[in-house]
Amino acid sequence: MKTLKNGEFFGQTNKTQHFDGLVITDTEYTHPYVDWHYHENAYFTFLLQGNMTEGNKKEIYDCSAGTLLYHHWEDPHYNIKPDIFTRGFHIEIPKEWFENLNITQNNLEGSFHLRNPELKILMYKIFKESKINDNNSETSIQQLLLHIFSHLSNPKIVVEKKPIWVKQIDELLHENFNEKLNLTALSQTLNIHPIHLSRDFYKYFHCNLGDYIRKLKINRALSIIANNEKSLTEVAIDCGFSDQSHFIRCFKENIGITPLKYRKIME
User: Fold this and answer.
1) pTM of this structure
2) 255-267, pLDDT tens digit by residue?
3) Residue limits of the HTH araC/xylS-type domain (predicted)?
4) Residue 21 zone, left/alpha/beta (φ > 0; ψ -120 to 50; rest)
5) d(CA 63, CA 264)
6) 152/163 Cα distance (integer angstroms)
7) DSSP letter, residue 42
8) Domains of the chain, each with CATH number or no CATH
9) What letter does residue 50 receive in the DSSP assignment?
10) CA 130, CA 176: separation in Å to the nearest integer?
11) How many other CB atoms sit within 10 Å of the CB of residue 230?
């Protein structure tokens, strides 16, 4: 089984950057099939454009633009890519980085498909910082990555058994975020009292219901913008925003720049 060393990925890596031990790469995937392999270091894969399938010993992920995966070191997997342009953003993390920052790794074994829109927005911000690449980018990237690991390394989040409605509402919101949703209708669908839903939503999602839906909309918008096939007005409509000004305001609040500026750094 092939082992990929520091900074190595299958495909055409167009840019490699180093930030205090972290290795960040922007890679076009060119292989229709990549056989079982593993990487020397832990790393995140964030699919910016296109589609691919990834399989490991436990699961198979159908990945589209906006998919975020985490792999711990030496976790075997394979990849299948359709005949379309596919681009991935990677953050590779050596063991020394975890040790120097005293980050626990007990809950990080194996591979994870990270669906939380907050974590994806943090990854988009890291991508943005890698493109800005000024004197403050290294500090910003470290801070954003630590924020992600503060969630992944929290044993309470991993171990605590969540009620059934948590998974149900997460699936509902991912499927219907661009529609008009309200607390009463969601409560009836889930057969849970609105007060209970409102009170406990923050406990499991770490934000209120409205903010979570906005983050899902922004994540969808980011993946559409990357393909550069629709106008920003069309993106706003497709993602369920009431108008373009609302879309731009919400986008800037979450990402820190306007959709137009983000589209330009994707080029």
Assistant:
1) 0.88
2) 999 999 999 888 7
3) 167-265
4) left
5) 24
6) 19
7) E
8) 2-155 (2.60.120.10), 161-266 (1.10.10.60)
9) S
10) 32
11) 14
